[in-house]
């Protein structure tokens, strides 16, 4: 009895070289290790909440007199909160880009097709899921 025609198999269409590259350049790293690498790189790239808040405060009160600040305090607080969050989102996106490129960049260089990139994303779905969940939970604190 003859086995299946491997040449028509979707994985085989990348060729045996793909399978070898995958074993050499795409080691099955521990999912927890990948998650921790993403988190630590992200955390090192994003300023603390207090630094971001201070940036928003300094921008909001720059050139304002103490009298103006007292007279507009409630609106100022809302404005600072909104600006701090907007600043965080910018830092968050840049931090994610840096973390993703550092952790997955070397692997992406070996991907020569959209299918291989999709495979990388699919294989690491739970790493990404846990990472983004940690970002969401971190914003609630």
Structural overview:
The protein is mostly helical and 141 residues long. It has 7 helices and no strands. α2 packs across α5 (73-109) and α3 crosses α5 (73-109). The longest helix has 37 residues, at 73-109. The termini are far apart. The model is unreliable at 3-27 (pLDDT under 50).
Terminal-residue CA separation = 62 Å
β-strand amount: under 5%
Question: Which term fits the overall shape?
Answer: elongated
Largest sheet: none
What is the residue-averaged pLDDT?
83
Query: What is the chain-wise order of helices and strands?
Result: HHHHHHH
Oligomer, anyone?
Answer: single chain
What proportion of the residues is helical, as a percent range?
A: over 70%
Structural class: mainly alpha
**Radius of gyration from CA coordinates:** 23 Å
Summarize the structure.
The chain has seven helices and no strands. It is mostly helical.
Topology:
Layout: H1 15-25, H2 31-45, H3 49-61, H4 66-71, H5 73-109, H6 114-123, H7 125-139
Descriptive keywords:
141 residues, mainly alpha, 76% helix, disordered N terminus
């Amino acid at each position: 009895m003859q086995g299946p025609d491997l040449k028509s198999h979707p994985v085989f269409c990348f060729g045996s070289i793909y399978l070898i590259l995958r074993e050499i350049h795409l080691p099955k790293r521990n999912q927890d290790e990948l998650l921790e690498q993403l988190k630590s790189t992200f955390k090192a790239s994003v300023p603390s909440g207090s630094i971001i808040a201070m940036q928003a405060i300094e921008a909001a009160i720059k050139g304002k007199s103490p009298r103006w600040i007292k007279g507009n305090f409630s609106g100022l607080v809302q404005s600072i909160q909104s600006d701090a969050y907007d600043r965080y989102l910018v830092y968050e996106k840049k931090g994610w880009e840096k973390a993703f490129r550092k952790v997955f960049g070397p692997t992406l260089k070996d991907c020569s097709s959209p299918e291989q990139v999709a495979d990388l994303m699919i294989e690491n779905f739970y790493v990404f899921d846990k990472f983004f969940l940690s970002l969401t939970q971190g914003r609630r604190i």
